[in-house]
Amino acid sequence: MNAPLDEMPLFVRQGAILPEYPVQSAVQFDCVSSLQFVIYGDPQEAAQSYVLYEDDGISFDHESGLYNELEVTYEATVDDGASVTYRYLQQGYLPAYRSRVFCFTRIRAVEQIAVEGFTCVTVEQLTSMSKGYAIDMDAGEVLVKLPADVMKARFVWRRQRS
Question: Right CATH number for 17-159 from 3.40.50.1240, 2.60.40.1930, 3.40.630.30, 2.60.40.1180?
Answer without folding.
Answer: 2.60.40.1180
